[in-house]
Specification:
The structure is a single chain. The protein has two domains: 175 residues, no CATH class; 98 residues, Rieske Iron-sulfur Protein (3-layer Sandwich). It is an alpha+beta fold. Helices cover 50% and strands 16% of the residues. The chain is built from seven helices and ten strands. Strands 1-10-9-4-3-2 form a six-stranded antiparallel sheet, with no helix packed on it. The longest helix is centred in the middle third of the chain and has 29 residues. A hairpin with a 2-residue loop joins β9 and β10.
């Protein structure tokens, strides 16, 4: 007999499903998303470099989860110190410092989170918006809490800080849902596990600079002929799964049609975000007029 889900888990899932259906959030989400996209576009090449830095293309995975640990960790420490009861002035100062560190970290987490959120859609966009609004509320509550503490009004400051911590935990739950259930911010590219060359396509069927999607052993692969060379990459974009076979090819790279990530043809390296993940590549050879591919080892 299957073990029933814990009541708390069922309650959390029901709450998230209810939030996903809140269509009234769409106008706000749409305006905000357009504003974020326009802000980076207005910056031109500099805006793209800033955007890619905030996405974490230089890091190899999203920067946002790195920074979210700062406010959560700092505010957890402040909560522990508050629950301890304010036994000394040193303890109070330590709690104040932890809140200040958390507020600084929250700014970085908000900027990187909004940069990643601009590429979401539908229910993911709505849940992401609420995730951000809850974090903004928690940050505001902690700012008020710190102001009260510095004025010597510590008991109300602790109470408001506790409320801020509760709101932050709710926001963190939504963030976990987006990552682990909706797969926002994870690598969407498939991995091939064969180490032999497999026939993919007759060489004459592949036209210059026209991406061609094929499926080999359950893995979608895009083939590109460019300047007398043939390249093969995983077709599903590592960012959010866009079809590279519908993208544009230039001398060095292929660009995803969904969000514009640009990957090097020779090794799948990220030349332009938002993807922080490189694209898996394949070894290619031509034998007896047939294009053959093999999964490339690191």
């Amino acid at each position: 007999m299957a073990t029933p889900q814990p009541n708390l888990q069922r309650l959390g899932e029901a709450a998230v499903q209810s939030l996903e259906r809140q269509d009234w959030l769409e106008p706000l989400a749409d305006r905000l998303q357009r504003a974020v996209v326009a802000a980076y576009q207005a910056g031109g090449a500099t805006g793209r470099r800033i955007r890619d830095f905030l996405h974490g293309t230089w890091l190899g995975h999203p920067l946002h989860p790195v920074l979210t640990d700062v406010p959560l960790g700092a505010w957890t420490l402040a909560t522990v110190l508050d629950l301890w009861g304010g036994a000394s002035r040193h303890q109070d100062r330590a709690a104040d410092a932890a809140i200040g560190v958390g507020l600084a970290g929250a700014v970085g987490a908000a900027v990187t989170g909004m940069t990643d959120w601009q590429h979401t859609a539908a229910e993911d966009r709505r849940v992401g918006l609420l995730h951000g609004l809850l974090n903004l509320s928690a940050t505001g509550l902690y700012a008020v809490s710190l102001a009260l503490r510095l004025r010597g009004v510590r008991t109300p400051g602790r109470t408001i800080g506790g409320l801020g911590f509760t709101v932050a935990l709710g926001a963190a739950y939504l963030g976990g849902h987006l990552v682990y259930r909706k797969r926002i911010g994870v690598d969407h590219a498939p991995r091939a596990d064969w180490d032999d060359f497999v026939t993919a396509l007759p060489e004459g069927d592949l036209r210059e600079s026209v991406p061609q999607r094929i499926e080999i052993r359950g893995v979608a692969v895009v083939l590109i002929r460019r300047a007398a060379r043939i390249y093969a990459l995983a077709d599903s974009c590592a960012h959010l799964g866009g079809p590279l076979s519908e993208g544009q090819v230039d001398d060095l790279a292929i660009r995803c049609p969904w969000h514009g990530s640009r990957f090097a043809l020779k090794d799948g390296g990220v030349l332009e975000g938002p993807s922080p993940f490189p694209q898996p590549c394949f070894d290619v050879r031509v034998r007896a007029g047939q294009i053959e591919v093999r999964a490339r080892r690191s």
